[in-house]
């Protein structure tokens, strides 16, 4: 290939041409969106227009969208709000899952340090929440349930509408981290009836450093960042107006393209999956076989270590991931894969391919031609691997 191949869209996406042009234009408009003069009002108008586009992407009212710096801040805002709400309601139980994004898991640990009880739900081999364990947890009448819509590593999609309904029946608030879902699959928060949901711009071909939090009208929320009137006093700080405006453009384009996006990335994912299964013996595809993001393929290669695979693919000009980009500096096996029951060897020997709208069949063909010999070589170097010829 004459250029590098980018198969790491779940980590971040490039700016689309349309968003880049729009963002560049807005970067020259320097007025503070909180100023009352004409230029300030123009910047504020851009923000409100963007709010409308982000709201439309997930089918909610614009005044229920709160702009933040990204998914991590949005998730922390929701979890942090439970300290005050728990005291008010006399509840101290939080329910989440073992496969959440690290920002949710770390925020949950902080709540536990303040005396709240956190229940980490187990998942089955596909990464789906075990409903019997969920029902047991709901018997404790939790304050909040936080379950991600689609997993960032293995792509498994949860039935958020059902899980939310069950939580509400138990008197709990419900939050979903929809960072990996919004723009890739249809997200209808009104139908799902969740109380909170989080999103991030850089997952949908927009700039980094801007995200959103959905707060259903009437749902309790406390500001994580205090000091100003912005976002109705719920998120202080000078507006990053150019990035927010670009987020609106990215959301507008994502909504228009969502069907084509799913068709395109699913075809590439399935082509690579089927090609790898045919060319490399004894591998495992992780995640749900059907309820999975169209662009996400996580594969375990027994007898080959994930970091070595990644480095060899890097030398071939292919960008992939060994798991969540936020945890890539850790030597520990993926907490997501361990939760699905994979042993340390399979968890350590896993690679995530995630596709986007700019990927091509030619790129998949290149990987299918040059990647299988890499696994064969690494397995020959391994003293622990035995070829069982099973798939």
Keywords:
seven-stranded mixed β-sheet; 12 strands; 42% helix; 391 residues; 13 helices; alpha/beta; 13% strand; globular; three-stranded antiparallel β-sheet
Characterization of this structure:
The chain is built from 13 helices and 12 strands. The two termini are 29 Å apart. A 7-stranded mixed sheet has the order 2-8-7-6-5-3-4, with helices on both faces. It has a 3-stranded antiparallel sheet with strand order 9-10-12. The chain has a two-stranded parallel ribbon with strand order 1-11. The radius of gyration is 22 Å and the shape is globular. Helix 2 runs parallel beside helix 8. It has helices spanning 17-27, 38-58, 71-89, 102-113, 131-138, 160-169, 189-192, 241-279, 306-315, 335-339, 344-348, 361-370, 372-381, and strands at residues 5-6, 65-68, 93-97, 117-121, 144-146, 173-177, 196-200, 211-215, 284-286, 296-300, 318-319, 350-354. The protein is 42% helix and 13% strand. The longest helix has 39 residues, at 241-279. Mean pLDDT is 94; it is low at 324-328. It has 391 residues and is an alpha/beta fold.
In what range is the share of β-strand residues? 5-15%
Order of secondary-structure elements: EHHEHEHEHEHEHEEHEEHEHHEHH
Low-confidence stretches: 324-328
Structural class: alpha/beta
List the total number of helices. Answer: 13
Strand runs, count: 12
Distance between the termini: 29 Å
Give the C-alpha Rg.
Answer: 22 Å
Q: Assign a percent range to the helix content.
A: 40-55%
Mean pLDDT: 94
Q: Indicate the overall shape.
A: globular
**Largest β-sheet summary:** 7 strands, mixed
| Main sheet: strand order | 2-8-7-6-5-3-4
